[in-house]
């Protein structure tokens, strides 16, 4: 069973940048749909970005132009976050859909495997 481990979270001031990483073990995830999600206190989990096996990406409107999802080799996923805003503060999760090569949308119900999360805090 795949294991996903996120890293790279931290505390930054508004306007700053962070790069989140997700490393998969026990399974090659490069041939499947992967995504980043986030959950702020008191709010529902929301999709941030997904990337299909072919490289097609989807972004939430709130992060378009600021965040970039990418892969490195078959087991590493990144989320480059620029121009961070206080409203980006949340726990960020990496997720994998090991049934589809192409991501459908940003619905978390499509993803069956999740990491433990990494906290991102943006101060104003």
Which properties best describe this structure?
124 residues; mainly beta; 11 strands
Structural features, described:
The protein is mainly beta and 124 residues long. The protein contains no helices and 11 strands. Strands 2, 4, 5, 6, 9, 10 and 11 form a 7-stranded mixed sheet that branches. A 4-stranded antiparallel sheet has the order 1-3-8-7, with no helix packed on it. β7 and β8 (76-81) form a beta hairpin. The chain is globular, with a radius of gyration of 13 Å. 32% of the residues are buried.
Task: Spell out the blueprint of helices and strands.
Elements: E1 3-7, E2 10-13, E3 18-25, E4 33-39, E5 46-51, E6 57-59, E7 67-72, E8 76-81, E9 90-97, E10 113-114, E11 118-123
Parallel strand pairs: 2-11
Antiparallel strand pairs: 1-3, 3-8, 4-5, 4-9, 5-6, 7-8, 9-10, 9-11
